[in-house]
Amino acid sequence: MAQLSAPGPVLVVAEPGDTQDVILSAVTAQELDAEVVTDLEHLGDHWRRAATVLVADQMAERVAAWALPHREAVFVVGPAPELLSAWSAPLSARVIPLPEGAVWLGAVLGEGDSRCRAPVVAVIGGSGGVGASTLAAALAQLSAVDGRAAALVDADLLGGGIDLLLGAEGVEGWRWPRLNGAEGQLSDLRAYLPVVDGVTVVSMARGGGPELAREPLAAIVNSLANWHSLVVLDPGRAMLSAAREAVRLSNRQLLVVSAGVRGVAAARQTISAYGLEQPELVVRRARGALSSSLVAEALGLPVLAELPTEPSLVGAAERGEPPARGSRRGYRRAVARLLEQVLSGVAQ
Ligand SMILES: Nc1ncnc2c1ncn2[C@@H]1O[C@H](COP(=O)(O)OP(=O)(O)O)[C@@H](O)[C@H]1O
Ligand SMILES: [Mg+2]
Predict the structure, then answer these.
(1) Whose CA is nearest to atom 9 of ligand 1?
(2) Contact call for residues 115 and 127 (beta carbons, < 8 A)
(3) What does the domain layout of the chain look like in residue ranges?
(4) Separation of 130 CA from ligand 2 center, angstroms?
């Protein structure tokens, strides 16, 4: 979960050289104080206190070996792509490739925390067939249309494959069984994964297979969050271990609730079965249904958005036409508004 660090110095773990020079000039430009540490024996204290931690790519392996506690706002910085991708996940760090990332380095230091990491949003159906997968796909799609790169991750073993929803079943790229070997050493995955309408898609292969393991899911989601502006997860309702891991990895959970008595009852069961702490409601409206404020009251949770019932989505899904293209304006507008809220801040 996002945690704001107390204001503190910038910890720089880099030996003298080009990478250290670039980092220190960025720190100076932001009028911040740097603590440069090369003797890792003394890292622990600085690690906890610093507002931001910048680790040179050459030092990343040694830092990871210390098994320091997990913290936010860690960045691996340097010119070696293979080191950046290898040590990003073990350190829960974002990567800043040099020289092209030097400007971004300034922005990161200005933020002083992890706010620039892409939000990871799980979209969960409060009941079956309520439109959770469709919404997940539409959010990712509209984000990409706006030029904000998005990834859509299918973690629903029994969902039939989210690539079908996007008409992406024929698009080349890796799918889950192949990705199951992933363990943290992930570079920018976009080169290997199917991309549809600008959305990077991680989908299930059909025909069954081994259950999706939790570790690769975590590594993949971490990597995607480093390289996109938004990551949307579709855990489904089967609640197998990968789906639970997907929910755990998310920093925001949207629960799509059908605005009826049974929809609310099922949503309550879903919240408890998944152990959701602060889901935000997306109320799927229908004629004669309960009002959103009644749904909010019944569940004791905030409503983030309302979604209209949009009959054209059913045919669009059958044709494999992505939902943001195959729907009318009312649905698109509702999703666009929701997207703005999702991108405007990560839930605390
Ligand atoms: N807002 C909506 N209005 C009408 N039909 C919808 C809407 N959202 C999804 N659908 C349709 O409902 C069915 C189930 O959608 P899906 O997204 O797979 O639900 P879930 O993931 O919650 O099980 C699909 O046929 C889909 O096209
Ligand atoms: Mg679904």
Answers:
(1) 131
(2) no
(3) 10-111, 120-343
(4) 8
Is the Cβ atom of 132 under 6 angstroms away from ligand 1? yes
Q: Which atom of ligand 1 is nearest to the CA of 129?
A: 23
Q: Between residues 153 and 113, which one has the greater pLDDT?
A: 153
- Give the atom of ligand 1 at the shortest distance from the alpha carbon of 127: 22
E strand or H helix that includes residue 52: strand 52-56
Of 280, 285, 279, 303, give the one whose Cα is nearest residue 293: 303
DSSP state of 181: T
The model's pTM is 0.71
Supply the mean pLDDT for the chain.
Answer: 85
> What does the pLDDT read at residue 188?
62
Helix and strand totals (H; E) in the chain:
14, 13
Whether 330 is in the pocket of ligand 1, judged by its Cβ within 6 Å, is: no
The domain defined by 10-111 folds into: Rossmann fold (3.40.50)
CATH architecture assigned to 120-343: 3-Layer(aba) Sandwich (3.40)
Residue 306: strand pairing partners: 283
